[in-house]
Amino acid sequence: MTDMSKPNVAAVPSPRSTADGANAQLPLPVLRIPLLDRERQLFAYEIVFHREAGDEDSFLQRMLSTITDGALNRLVRGNRAFLKMPVELLPEDSDVLLHQPRLGLVLQAHNGTDEELMARLRKMAERGCQFMLDLTEKDLDGSAAFEAILHLVQFVRLDASALAPQTLKERAEQMHERGLHVVAGQVNDHPTYERCLELPFQAIQGRYLLIPQPIEVPVLTANRLSMLRLMSLLQQGNPGPIDIGNIIRDDAVLSYKLLSCVNSAYFALPRQLKSVEHAAIFFGVKRMRNWIDTMALCGMDDRPPELLRAALIRAQMCEKLCAGPRSQAEMAFTVGLFSLLDTLMCAPMEFLLTHLRLDPEISDALTSREGTLGQLLQQILIWEAGELTSAQVPPQRIQRMAAVYLEATQWADQVFATANGKSAS
Fold first, then answer.
1. pTM over the 0.90 mark
2. For residues 278 and 244, is the Cβ–Cβ distance under 8 A?
3. Per the domain annotation, does 124 fall within a domain?
4. Are residues 91 and 200 in the same domain?
């Protein structure tokens, strides 16, 4: 599905400066992490820049380039976003954020002790830049520096994983009473998420979104059972183009979404495909099967859209980064797409796989991260968590994943929007 698909200055550059200049032109590895409101809709993105130790000059140039060349706008799609980066690295005369009204900065409490930095931040605030303050328990000391930065910000984020439940409640209420928008961060399990819903948080952020809820006895709704049957039929008996058409013939909505998506201007096909059978002939059965699975999942309007986007991003990254032949890459896509199936369906993965009867290589990758596809998925999960470093993989691999990630997010946004009859922007 991929085809749809302070450097040194010298008169004669030295090898070191040549390398620095080349690095400055490379895309900066960046992640977007959603913050959801109480209705599980997107509230904002946090943009986290990957930074290796000792590369401040290169990091600054590449970060500014990412903001100014439009890549960041494409990543956040015009939504509110907060940049997580060392604010001390912002150029003193830079107006880079002043022309991006939806972009803000994540601040730390210790920033309030730097008078020069605070003066710059006040000027940015006067011009409309918004700030979110990360707070820990030790930051709440009532000092003049703390109060100064607290008066500067509009949003405060509390670390739900580091605060005891009662402390979290008290701090949330305290910040809310001061007229600040309060965000719960590091909400990494569902019991914590449920507690946060009872507190005055405007947004919640964390790994809970990607983790299936513990369920003693899985009960699938009629719509989800129907979706599983459809996916199972697509996996059985090596269906041809006509069989593919027959399988989804009775689902007029799915057929319409499928053809609307593959015929959209985003993919610029040489001719319009007028039927599912024609599309299966044009793309191939396995690729078409992936398209149908994608459209079916995109139709789950009872699940958070950012969760669905996450599944699409994983799918595209798995396929793009797969080093095998086309058939292997198409299996990799399935692994990425189905890696969140348990969270989407609210049922254990092993239970779902008994209904789907996938290729053993795909099943092993999904359940135990075994095999080539399982190892690929595991590396993408580490990337997604922002924990992949050059100590684990070569720098070239990180650059490759950075480029693929940016492409995958745009692809996922476009596909999800088209499937739901909306504009990706």
1. no
2. no
3. yes
4. yes
The CATH number of the domain holding residue 206 is 3.20.20.450
Rounding to the nearest 10 degrees, give the CA dihedral for residues 408, 412, 413, 418.
140
Q: Are 158 and 131 in contact (CB under 8 A)?
A: no
Q: Tell me whether residue 351 is exposed, middle or buried, using C-beta atoms within 10 angstroms of its C-beta: 0 to 12, 13 to 18, 19 or more.
A: middle
> Which residue, among 85, 80, 84, 97, has the nearest Cα to 44 in the 3D structure?
80
CA distances to 115, 318, 379 from 365, rounded to whole Å, are 52, 12, 12
In the listed set 161, 186, 210, which residue is the last one of a domain according to the structure? 210
36 versus 147: the higher-pLDDT residue is 36
Contact at 8 Å (CB) between 60 and 89? yes
Q: Could you report the per-residue pLDDT of 317-354, keeping only the tens digit for each?
A: 999 999 989 889 999 999 999 999 999 999 999 999 99
Q: Is the Cβ–Cβ distance between 97 and 129 less than 8 Å?
A: yes
Tokens of 148: 């100064």
Supply the pLDDT for residue 26: 63
Torsion of CA 389, 393, 399, 400, to 10 degrees: -140
Counted domains in the chain:
2
Distance CA 265, CA 40 (A): 30
Q: What is the C-alpha separation between 237 and 32, in angstroms, rounded?
A: 40
* 108, 134 Cβ separation under 8 angstroms: yes
Q: Do residues 107 and 131 lie in contact, with contact meaning Cβ atoms separated by under 8 Å?
A: yes
Closest listed residue to residue 79, CA positions, set 114, 46, 110: 46
- Tell the burial category of 288 from Cβ atoms under 10 Å away from its Cβ (0-12, 13-18, 19+): buried
Residue 343 belongs to a domain? yes
To the nearest 10°, report the CA torsion of 170, 174, 176, 177.
130
CB 284 within 8 A of CB 240: no
Q: How far apart are CA 337 and CA 286, in angstroms?
A: 14
- Of residues 278 and 33, more confidence is placed in 33
